[in-house]
């Protein structure tokens, strides 16, 4: 009985993770990890607006980072990413917006307010 309860708890926790996807068109830094252009899956979970994000290429986690959920004024019409110049002349990921969702992921602890939320 106890083992079944623990298994149910872990199953519920696993199902509670949110998911999304993004496409990178340029080499992009995430928490010190260089990601190549391509398609990535994102999974995140946490309490309140603070979440921990895993970025996956296929089934392999390629980067993890802290993020904040930022409310958007209206649901996004498409998936989008925002970047800023990084120190090594690449780009650093700052935000991911998901089509149909009324929130964005502001990447990193000092991520700016959502560009989409300001529009």
Number of strands: 9
**What structural class results from the helix and strand content?**
alpha+beta
Helix content: 10-25%
Major sheet size, sense and barrel closure: 9 strands, mixed
Overall, the morphology is: globular
Strand content: over 45%
Q: Please provide the ordered H/E string of secondary-structure elements.
A: HEEEEEEEEEH
Describe the structure in brief:
The chain has 119 residues and is an alpha+beta fold. The chain is built from 2 helices and 9 strands.
Description of the structure:
The longest helix has 15 residues, at 2-16. Strand 2 and strand 3 (33-35) form a beta hairpin. The chain has 119 residues and is of the alpha+beta class. The chain has helices spanning 2-16, 115-118, and strands at residues 18-24, 28-30, 33-35, 38-47, 50-57, 60-71, 80-85, 91-97, 103-107. It is globular. The N and C termini lie far apart (53 Å). The protein has 2 helices and 9 strands, in the order αβββββββββα. Strands 1, 2, 3, 4, 5, 6, 7, 8 and 9 form a 9-stranded mixed beta sheet that branches. Helices cover 16% and strands 51% of the residues.
Descriptive keywords:
alpha+beta, nine-stranded mixed β-sheet, 2 helices, 16% helix, 51% strand, disordered N terminus, disordered C terminus
